[in-house]
Amino acid sequence: MAGVQTLKQKIQVNMKADRVVNTIKKKEGSFNDKTMERTKSVSFLALEGDVLKQYKSYKVTLNVVPKDDRVCIAKWTWEYEKLNDDVPPLTKYSLQITRATSRLGYYHENMSSMSRSFLVI
Fold first, then answer.
1. Using DSSP, how many helices (H) and how many strands (E) does the chain show?
2. Which residue in 19, 24, 25, 110 has the fewest CB atoms around it within 10 Å?
3. How many separate domains does the chain show?
4. CA 8 remoteness from chain centre
5. In a 3-state reduction of DSSP, which class is residue 35?
6. pLDDT tens-digit profile of 47-105?
7. For the stretch 19-45, what's the b/e string if a residue is b when 16 or more beta carbons lie within 10 angstroms of its beta carbon?
8. What's the predicted TM-score (pTM) here?
9. Contact between residue 79 and residue 4 where contact means Cβ atoms under 8 Å apart
10. What domain range is 111 assigned to?
């Protein structure tokens, strides 16, 4: 086996960096998370669940870099070790996370406008 492998993805998000980190760290699951507010990063270490049926270790780190007041770059890093050579590439999990991240700004914008319309009524 190849040992610990790394996969990196960058995604532009139409949202403030602080809000992205706060949104991501609120997710629930079988992970131990460590948040670094100053550096706008959060790491997740898998403790149980389906991911550990294929991977001996699985750690995901998100670093968020502000681009301006309304846009940031989300930099995801996966560090993982396959249980055996037959385990497929990590694309299943990385695609889910990158798609969800790219939609954060859209989701947040729509939820904010819905909240405002409910308040007006």
1. 3, 5
2. 110
3. 1
4. 11
5. strand
6. 988 889 999 999 999 999 999 989 999 999 999 999 999 998 888 888 988 898 988 87
7. ebbebbbeeeeebeeeeeeeebbbbbe
8. 0.79
9. yes
10. 5-120
Euclidean distance between CA atoms 60 and 58, whole angstroms: 7
Backbone angles phi, psi at 30, to 5 degrees: -90, 55
Assess contact for 91 and 72: CB atoms under 8 A. no
| pLDDT, tens digit (0-9, with 9 covering 90-100), for 28-54 | 555 666 767 778 888 889 998 888 999
- CATH label of the domain that carries residue 99: 3.30.530.20
Which sign, positive or negative, has the C-alpha torsion 21, 25, 27, 31? positive
